[in-house]
Amino acid sequence: MEEFKEYLAGVDHPDQRERMEELFAWVSTTFPQLERRVAWNQPMFTDHGTFIIGFSMANHHMSVAPEQVVIDHFSDDIVQAGYDHTKQLLRIKWKLPLDYSLLEQIIAFNIKDKADCTTFWRK
């Protein structure tokens, strides 16, 4: 994951860096067709040039940003998993486990929903 090496090197907390590395490896293994890049200081995965999902970090949580359409679609599942969300992202507190099943559904939904998308962001 050379694309995320510099980003991860800037993460001071070893447990948080390890968790992000694990997450990025999981996404790369589960969805090997996705391209990796860092833009707007955010590690993200894209498909045929369109945004699929991005990640960022804060002191108390990691943020997952799949776009508002996806947050709206999975709002109940996000809350059920114990995460909170805004219109644009969901927050996973560092102490909570990652719900890989939910993340897989979110990413798969976005890939399918944006299969014919020709822009980076939804219009």
Structural overview:
This protein has 123 residues and is α+β, with helices and mostly antiparallel strands. It has a single domain (2-113), classed as Aspartate Aminotransferase, domain 1, CATH 3.90.1150. It has four helices and six strands; from the N terminus they run H-H-E-E-E-E-H-E-E-H. The chain has helices at 5-9, 14-30, 68-80, 100-113, and strands at residues 35-39, 42-47, 50-57, 61-65, 84-85, 90-93. The chain has a six-stranded antiparallel β-sheet. Helix 3 (68-80) packs antiparallel against helix 4 (100-113). The protein starts with a helix and ends in a 10-residue tail after the last helix. The model has no long low-confidence stretch (mean pLDDT 96).
